[in-house]
Design goal:
The protein is mainly alpha-helical. The chain is built from 7 helices and 2 strands; from the N terminus they run ααααββααα. It is globular, with a radius of gyration of 18 Å. The two termini are 27 Å apart.
């Protein structure tokens, strides 16, 4: 598609706006389910990061979510106060703090699978279609991050 030089693209033709609106729709889909679980979307993301690999450092969690450590630290502290994670100093480096899922955190992580099921059901797409779309968006993200010399 060639971009018109004489006028800007309509919002619905701009991928940035489409992804923005999609993000809002996804958050609206997830919100009632997250409210039932008593967690926020960022807490859900941390549960998933630790579900992939428990015991990650705050810095590793931040990097995985493309956020700053200063954003993750208070979030993990709130999750610890709620009994979902436990923070411990790394045995290898006293300055690093690792986060570990508690039994309650692991149970909530397992319960959170309903979000993906809800997304699939509400999207009207098949699992292969949703997976293909996700891979395209991941490729776009990687290409854009590569242009900025930013790691995933």
């Amino acid at each position: 598609m060639l971009l018109p030089k004489d006028r800007p693209l309509a919002l619905d033709q701009q991928i940035c706006f489409t992804l923005y609106r999609t993000n809002i729709a996804i958050n609206r889909t997830y919100k009632p389910l997250l409210d039932e679980m008593g967690i926020t979307y960022p807490q859900y993301l941390v549960l998933n990061v630790l579900g992939e690999e428990d015991g990650r450092t705050i810095g590793m969690i931040a990097a995985r979510l493309a956020l700053d450590s200063s954003t993750i630290t208070p979030l993990v502290k709130r999750m610890e106060a709620a009994g979902l994670v436990q923070r411990r100093r790394s045995p290898d480096n006293d300055r690093e703090v690792q986060a570990w899922l508690t039994d309650s955190g692991r149970a909530l992580f397992a319960q959170s699978r309903c979000l993906g099921e809800s997304m699939l059901q509400r999207s009207g797409l098949t699992l292969p279609q949703l997976d293909a779309l996700n891979r395209q968006i991941l490729d776009l993200t990687a290409a854009l991050d590569g242009q900025l010399d930013r790691p995933e």
